[in-house]
């Protein structure tokens, strides 16, 4: 495990108390002292519609727990059917804006009908309860329809990021052994067509399990359709029946799996179940994102990301919100596109990432000077630490000093927001994620699992079960136990470092395991390393995440070469190419260091924290366990280049 450096105490420059105008209308205003977690969660679950009530709120202990035991529920029913009984049926559920400027609005009634039809299509194609459906779609209404259709019939969806290269897509399909895949012919990105279907064709060469591919036509480009395997979405939908009853699911039935990078090379399928997950996503979307009937809500990220699952689909739709979906790039045709969309639809809640905020800040205020963005009332952030400069800019310039910012900490594994301000109650400190939400038992501990004093860095852990927590790693319970439960007794290991200040506010310092978080994308160091090692001249590799002073992190590769090979720019380029080909261009390393040796412990483990010190130009931490100290001198010379 990583040894922590003494924390550099960040003294917040300014504290922002909640403003009266916001407080007066906020969903959560009174300090809620939670005396009884189970009662609290029971109240939250009661916000949903259940076919049959649970007979016990929580059963079991970490790591194997069941929430809302024997309760019967359907996520698709909660996102659709229950809204049809009121005027909400004609409310816009999804507003899609294509990159070329095309627009499509689907009411709750529309979304219900399309979902029911596609659920019938899936059934016709032989999909049954418990089967896994891989969804490899860009941001489009059909992605939401497909997710809700799976949920409707009890099939498990597995969404895969569109930026992944064919091999990375194939890895995820192979692990899930899904027989059916849903994709598109392509989508628009900066005026160009991204040829999604070609990537699928390439990936499927490695995946014999897939018998059926359903293709949504988005860009109408010429693609190859394989006879008996590939079908057009619109053709199948033509014949589908409008009516499909939502399946009665057990609270603990799997709703979806979401692959994410871990410490080992193989991606892990994080398993989420129905009742607990929906309770977490729906209740936090109400409390943290403060959703109201009249809001226009935009979570600007891929649906594939866990953020998209919880805060574009299940949270907002279960709350009957109007949700924006945008297909394309934020700077196309020019750098005001985001602000133009906010103005066009009157977006009131905008949930984005620190990377995006830093980019908007760099582009400058002139891009929204001519747009009316005064409908905004709440801003949100997720994925990385928001540096105070970016925070302040977002607050003052975009929010005009009126809109609270909810900086939300959570993970694929936690399913929903865990630590965050409650916008009508919490004073904000730029750079801090504030305090654990009601019902969440977060703590910062040392190597032995003891709570650390305030102001000292340690490991962020969760000490009590919560409804939307990860239930397992798909088909790999051992990995589930090793990754999250073997580090500390009786606590969920998040893999993040943090400290708590004198007011009880949490400050996240980033990953302390082998996961690299770049612009909100999670990459496993082992995944990157195995891509590098596919180069015949690479003999050993270590991948690390390197932070700059704005807490922006980038991938950095250290590589040793085979006998006789020597470093060159061409070789560096080839190594970068391997990563792009195997994983995708979003994983491109910022730097490649060639070195004769990698620093290792006597046990042969690569000491990544020393490499991090080198890359970030810091004084080296403890080197006492290092096998060969001379390695470091050589690295330092390289690091200083
Ligand atoms: C990081 C995304 C600082 C963290 C929902 C976590 C954050 C990882 C924040 C999970 C935040 C997420 N401040 N860091 N507000 N939110 N992270 O699984 O390192 O894609 O462990 O889930 O992102 O990334 P994931």
Could you walk me through the main structural features you see in this protein, from its secondary elements to its overall organization?
- By secondary structure, this protein is α/β, with parallel strands linked by helices.
- It has a domain of 122 residues: ANL, C-terminal domain (GMP Synthetase, Chain A, domain 3).
- Helices cover 29% and strands 23% of the residues.
- It has 19 helices and 30 strands.
- The strands form eight sheets. Strands 12-11-8-6-7-14-15-23 form an eight-stranded mixed beta sheet, with helices on both faces. A seven-stranded mixed beta sheet has the order 5-4-17-16-18-19-20, sandwiched between helices. A four-stranded antiparallel beta sheet has the order 21-22-24-25.
- Helix 4 packs across helix 5.
- It is globular.
- About 1% of the residues have low confidence.
- The site of 5'-O-[(S)-ethoxy(hydroxy)phosphoryl]adenosine has 22 residues, from helix 10, strand 20, strand 24 and strand 25.
């Amino acid at each position: 495990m990583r040894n922590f450096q003494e924390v550099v105490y960040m003294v917040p420059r300014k504290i922002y108390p909640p403003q009266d105008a916001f407080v007066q209308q906020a969903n959560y205003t009174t300090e809620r002292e939670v005396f009884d977690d189970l009662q609290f969660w029971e109240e939250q679950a009661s916000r949903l519609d259940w076919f049959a009530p649970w007979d016990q709120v929580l059963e079991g202990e970490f790591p194997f727990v069941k929430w809302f035991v024997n309760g019967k529920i359907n996520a698709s029913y909660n996102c659709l059917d229950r809204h049809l009984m009121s005027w909400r049926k004609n409310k816009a559920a999804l507003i899609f804006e294509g990159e070329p400027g095309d627009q499509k609005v689907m009411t709750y009634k529309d979304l219900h009908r399309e979902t029911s039809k596609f659920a019938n299509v899936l059934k016709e194609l032989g999909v049954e309860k418990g089967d896994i459906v891989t969804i490899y779609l860009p941001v489009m209404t059909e992605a939401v329809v497909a997710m809700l259709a799976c949920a409707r019939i009890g099939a498990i969806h597995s969404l895969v990021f569109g930026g992944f290269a064919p091999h990375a897509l194939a890895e995820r399909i192979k692990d899930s052994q899904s027989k059916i895949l849903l994709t598109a012919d392509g989508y628009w990105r900066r005026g160009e067509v991204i040829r999604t279907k070609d990537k699928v064709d390439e990936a499927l060469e490695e995946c014999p399990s897939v018998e059926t591919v359903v293709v949504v036509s988005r860009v109408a480009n010429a693609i190859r359709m394989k006879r008996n395997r590939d079908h057009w979405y619109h053709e199948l939908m033509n014949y589908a029946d409008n009516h499909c009853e939502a399946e009665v699911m057990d609270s603990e039935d799997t709703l979806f799996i979401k692959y994410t990078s871990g410490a080992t090379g193989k991606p892990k399928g994080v398993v989420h179940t129905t009742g607990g997950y929906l309770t977490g996503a729906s209740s936090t979307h109400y409390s943290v994102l403060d959703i109201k009937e009249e809001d226009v809500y935009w979570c600007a990220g891929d649906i594939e990301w866990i953020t998209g699952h919880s805060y574009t689909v299940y949270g907002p739709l279960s709350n009957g919100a109007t949700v924006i979906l945008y297909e394309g790039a934020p700077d196309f045709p020019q750098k005001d596109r985001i602000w133009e969309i906010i103005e066009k639809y009157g977006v009131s809640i905008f949930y984005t990432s620190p990377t995006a905020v830093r980019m908007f800040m760099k582009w400058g205020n002139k891009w929204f000077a001519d747009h009316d963005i005064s409908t905004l009332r709440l801003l949100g952030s997720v994925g990385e630490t928001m540096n105070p400069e970016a925070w302040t800019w977002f607050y003052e310039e975009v929010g005009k000093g009126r809109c609270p910012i909810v900086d939300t900490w959570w993970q694929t594994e936690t399913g929903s927001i865990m630590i965050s301000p409650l916008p009508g109650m919490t004073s904000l400190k730029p750079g801090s994620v504030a305090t654990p939400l009601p019902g969440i038992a977060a703590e910062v501990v040392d190597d032995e699992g003891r709570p650390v004093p305030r102001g000292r860095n340690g490991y962020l852990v969760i000490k009590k079960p919560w409804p939307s927590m990860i239930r397992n790693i798909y088909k790999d319970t051992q990995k589930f136990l090793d990754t999250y439960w073997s580090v500390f007794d009786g606590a969920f290991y998040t893999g993040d470092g943090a400290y708590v200040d004198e007011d009880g506010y949490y400050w996240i310092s980033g990953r302390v395991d082998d996961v690299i978080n770049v612009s909100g994308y999670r990459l496993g160091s082992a995944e990157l390393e195995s891509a590098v090692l596919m180069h015949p001249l690479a003999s050993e590799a270590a991948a690390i995440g390197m932070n700059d002073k704005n807490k922006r992190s980038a991938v950095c590769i250290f590589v040793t070469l085979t006998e006789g090979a020597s470093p060159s720019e061409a070789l560096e380029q080839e190594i970068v190419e391997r990563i792009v080909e195997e994983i995708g261009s979003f994983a491109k390393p910022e730097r490649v260091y060639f070195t004769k040796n990698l620093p290792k412990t006597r046990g042969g483990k690569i000491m990544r924290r020393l490499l991090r010190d080198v890359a970030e130009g810091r004084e080296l931490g403890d080197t006492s366990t290092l096998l060969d100290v001379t390695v470091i001198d050589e690295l330092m010379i390289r690091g200083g280049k």
